[in-house]
Every structure is written in structure tokens, then in C-alpha cells.
Amino acid sequence: MQNSKPDLTPRQTHKPYPIDQVTQHVPPGTRILDGKYPLLAGLEHDEMGHPTGSPKLHMAMTAKRRNKLRKLAEEIPVPEIYGDQEGDTLLVGWGSTYGPIHDAAKTARENGEKVGALHLRHLHPLPNGLEKIFGKFKRIVTVEMNDQGVYGYGQLATILRARYCEPKITSFTKTDGLTFRVKEILDGVFKGKSFLARHIPREGAEVLHEAGAENVKHLKEVVPQGVG
User: Fold this and answer.
1) pLDDT higher than 60, residue 61
2) Is it the case that residue 28 has pLDDT exceeding 60?
3) Which of 83, 97, 220, 226 has the smallest CB count inside 10 Å?
4) Going from the N-terminus, what domains does the chain have, and what CATH number goes with each?
């Protein structure tokens, strides 16, 4: 078990924001023997936490924060690819799109497509190494529950295109607020593919059977309504 009792050992001096070290605070109530107590504020500050308007300090503190993010990116694990490790299409998502994206990749692969799926858990900073994964696929499609925006890309695709300067990154988006259905992803990403008509018939379409199957003519007779 971790000892939850704070270490209130007096310090001779304490700088919580040293420019060349990681920020570290002491528990409130700790005595600082030189009498110089640090401040906590949301403003730009010096090494003691005192607000400052110094351009030199502002540049130094900004660089420190930038380097903290770079260090963090090195510690974030690269997400694993589900499905094909290289090929034609890589589906990318984050959050609630995990299940539908993986099911869509599975269905597409079962019908001959070279497809992988990648789910991001960290967006800022992004994990190092994504560019190597993107280089293994002919196109990258983000599946997003948001608007395509002014320039025709979802928010995640916009971030990835800006970060990697990769024109093969596109997006498939929707804004109805409903969870993605597998059929929607397959329709949006693999438009014109023949396996869609074969394996995902539309409402009212005639259902094809092997010999000896029941005499069922319409989709709603064999597929519970609402199933994606």
C-alpha cells in the first residue's frame, strides 16, 4: 500500500518550476526555510510561480512545456493494428467507434479486402510511429462522428493530415448522433464494391439462398430490424 501521509519535511528552498527540470510541487503546509514561498497561478510565471511578462521567460517556459509533450509522446505505446498489417485501406478511429470499425474491417476482410483497423487512445500528443503504420497502406480513412468541416475532413482526419502532411488521409463522417452501423461504414468506405450488394442486402431486396433453404423473400424476414 502507498503511504498517503504527505511528506512535510522542511525544505531549505524550493523552486516548483525550474526551467531545466520537471515541475514538482511540495505538499501544502511544507515549511520553506529561506522564506521564499512559491505561488500557484494560471498565468505565465517564473521558476517560483510568480506571474511575469518577461518575453525571455515566456519563451523558456513555452519550450519546457513543448518538451514535456515530446517526452510524453515517447512513452505512449503505439496502437496495434487489427486485421491486415498492410494493404489497401486502414480504418482509423477513437472513442465509441471501436466496435463498428473492427466489425467493418472483419466483414471487408472476409470478402477479400486488404483492410486493417487502428484505434487511437491518445490524440495530444499522438504516439510516435504512426507514420510508419500509415506508410503500409494505400489509403487511410478516419471514421468519425462529427462534421466534415469547411475543408471536407473530420476533426481527427484534419489533425492527422496536419501532423503528417499525408494526402492519402481522408474521412467518413456523420452528424446524426447515432452510433455507427457496420453497414454505414462499409457503404461509406467501400463504395461500389460488389460484396456490399451480395452480403448486405437493402430493405425489400430479394434474399438469395442456397438450394433447400426456406422460401424467404425479404430481408426483414431473416434479419431482426435494427441490427447493423
Assistant:
1) yes
2) yes
3) 226
4) 1-75 (no CATH), 81-200 (3.40.50.920)
